[in-house]
Design a protein that fits this description.
Largest sheet: 16 strands, antiparallel, barrel
Shape: globular
CATH superfamily: Porin
Radius of gyration: 37 Å
Structural class: alpha+beta
Strand content: over 45%
Length: 450
């Protein structure tokens, strides 16, 4: 038998199968593994028309979020607007510019005449601030402040026909080093340690009225049968009849403030002229009651002799010699749920060997703040105060009065508008037989912070 001839085609096929078997097996395994994914993709393609609208919405929201993030990043690297302040960061020092404008109209009336004054609100004058802030090693912070006021026709009495350079006053020019553990040191023109110690007030209405009552119409003059009209130089102003004995205001000084301990801190300062001031303050809850907020402080000033009294000197009218020692304090309590508040302040100044009695004064105020009346605007504040002083202007003098007022805050515009009525009554012991007229003052004003 002859053997069958070899089949060249069949042999090639067998050889090809033997060669490609491993590759074919790998392809089958890969197909098995990827089949669910292919099936899933096929399902997604089938469902795509139903999801297309929602996917487009999500993509649009994502683009909006990305644009907002880019805007935030741009502000971090350049200028930034944040409510009441404009901030610019350069390297490691941050510059903050802010301030306010406060203008008002006053109506003053005595038994002889009525006067109208367009003024800058001396309760919180028009001003501009420049602050530079930077971090230093070891947890220290450094702040420089330049603050000046532009106060044409202040409501305390000045009557300038037109603005002039006398209306420009540098309030603060200082550098401050602060640390949470070690406290703060200020060098330059700054508040003394006791400035504001007799003016702590939680009513939210200090833009209109507080213990420095002369800021509302202080330039109006008490008159009698001899003096004649309100502007008579022979009369006595409201400002000369009152003193709340608050600490010296801004001076060239060095000041130290301790860190806060459970809401308490102590301040001490030495100013030019050997003025010494020490004060202790507290701001926090009222005996642990969370619904109540308490602000309280007491201060002592040593005032060396500087001759006749000058504005802001801390001396009562007519003092020609010194030294004097001054004590003052205030306390204010706010019941947060109801918005009710009560404030009390008092002060005195010793006169050493002078024959005249030591002058003193007391002040009290009730306030109520609520958003219920005009919730779209902001808080409405209603307040009333009363005050009494002895021996401030001269021997036997008595000065008293009361006031009522309303403040409306406009939160979105960072603005407050207000109206205040005050009655001032002065009894001059030296001319009691002639009498001194009472003065009625109405003040309508507005302050905008930026």
């Amino acid at each position: 038998m002859h053997p069958e001839p070899a089949n060249p085609i069949g042999g090639e096929m067998k050889q090809g199968l033997k060669t490609s078997a491993p590759m074919l097996g790998a392809a089958l395994v890969a197909a098995a593994v990827t089949w669910p994914t292919v099936a899933s993709a096929r399902d997604e393609v089938r469902l795509h028309p139903k999801l297309n609208g929602r996917v487009n919405e999500l993509e649009q929201e994502l683009r909006i979020m990305k644009n907002r993030m880019k805007a935030i990043e741009r502000r971090k690297g350049g200028s930034k607007s944040s409510g009441r302040s404009v901030r610019r960061t350069k390297k490691r020092v941050q510059l903050i510019v802010d301030g306010q404008v406060h203008r008002a109209v006053l109506f003053g009336s005595t038994r002889r005449n009525t006067e109208i004054l367009h003024a800058d609100g001396d309760q919180s004058s028009t001003r501009v601030r420049l602050r530079g802030k930077a971090n230093a090693p070891g947890g220290w912070k450094v702040e420089a402040r330049i603050e000046f006021e532009l106060e044409n026709n202040d409501s305390n009495g000045t009557r300038d026909a037109t603005p002039n350079l006398d209306d420009l006053n540098f309030r603060k020019l200082r550098i401050k080093f602060s640390h949470k553990r070690y406290g703060a040191i200020s060098i330059g023109r700054e508040d003394t340690a006791t400035n504001g110690i007799a003016e702590l007030d939680l009513s939210g209405s200090t833009v209109a009225m507080y213990s420095d009552v002369e800021t509302v119409g202080g330039g109006f003059v008490h008159v009698n049968a001899v003096n004649g009209v309100t502007g008579s130089a022979a009369g006595q102003t409201i400002a000369a009849s009152w003193n709340n004995f608050d600490g010296s205001s801004r001076r060239d000084l060095i000041r130290y403030d301790t860190p806060k301990f459970f809401g308490f801190w102590v301040s001490a300062s030495h100013a030019n002229g050997d003025r010494l001031s020490v004060a202790i303050r507290y701001v926090g809850s009222f005996f642990g009651l969370k619904d109540f907020k308490l602000a309280a402080g007491f201060g002592y000033d040593y005032l060396p002799g500087e001759g006749a009294s000058a504005p802001g000197s801390g001396f009562v009218a007519g003092d020609a010699t010194g030294p004097r020692q001054q004590y003052a304090g205030s306390v204010s309590v706010l019941h947060k749920p109801s918005g009710l508040s009560i404030t009390f302040a008092a002060g005195t100044q010793t006169r050493g060997g002078a024959a005249r009695e030591n002058p003193w004064s007391v002040y009290t105020k009730l306030g109520w703040q609520t958003k219920a009346l005009l919730p779209r605007l902001g808080k409405t504040i209603i307040m009333a105060d009363a005050f009494y002083a002895r021996e401030v202007s001269a021997v036997g003098d008595r000065f008293k009065g009361f006031g009522i007022g309303l403040v409306q805050k406009i939160d979105e515009a960072s603005t407050e508008i207000y109206v205040v009525y005050r009655l001032y009554d002065l009894h001059k012991a030296a001319i009691a037989s002639r009498g001194q007229s009472t003065i009625h003052v109405v003040m309508v004003g507005s302050r905008l912070k930026f």
